[in-house]
Design goal:
8-stranded mixed β-sheet, Dihydrofolate Reductase, subunit A, alpha/beta, 26% helix, single chain, 179 residues
Length: 179
């Protein structure tokens, strides 16, 4: 069965929105981790805001690192307001979202990657659909912005890996503690 992997760039204060603050810390280790992560996945699951942001940028960045994967990989977009998902290989998920995502997990293939999409991430957590969190924690305090976990979020997680990846960034990998 495919797994849903949530991957986030997170400041020490939990902020994940507009992660331009992560750029000064980018290095070869982070690049390698992101390459390995995308090789293990063959689909993306995105919320509307993240999808629209990516769709406005990635189709025009064909020469940048990761552009082929971002543009060619199937994208599943959860939204109650979008009427269409026009970016290449995009499918809109509406209606029975939990059922559709459960079906995606049952389909053959590699894992499914969730970037950003804090509203979707919190919804997936409430429905016990996240299998792993990859949190790249950056040594900055941003002060304001969307946080990965909303104030009313709750989940029991177990730490399965902690690894410094240079420049002060730490990878923290968690899985739900489904006791």
């Amino acid at each position: 069965m495919r797994k849903i992997i949530v991957t986030e760039f997170v400041a020490l204060d939990g902020v994940m929105e507009e992660p331009a603050w992560s750029l000064p810390y980018w290095n070869e280790e982070i690049s390698q981790f992101k390459d390995d992560e995308t090789r293990a996945c063959d689909a993306m699951l995105l919320g509307r805001v993240t999808y629209q942001g990516f769709a406005a940028v990635w189709p025009h960045r064909t020469a940048e690192e990761g552009a082929g994967w971002m543009n060619d990989t199937p994208k599943y977009v959860v939204s109650n307001t979008l009427k269409e998902a026009a970016w290449s290989n995009s499918t809109l998920i509406t209606g029975d979202v939990a059922g559709e995502i459960s079906r995606l997990k049952q389909m053959p293939g590699k894992d499914i990657l969730v970037y950003g999409s804090s509203v979707l991430v919190n919804w997936l957590m409430r429905h016990d659909l996240v299998d792993t969190f990859h949190l790249l924690v950056y040594p900055v305090v941003v002060g304001k912005g969307k946080r990965v976990f909303k104030e009313d979020s709750s989940a029991a997680l177990k730490l399965v890996e902690t690894r410094p990846i240079g420049s002060g960034v730490v990878l923290m990998r968690y899985q739900p503690d489904r006791k």
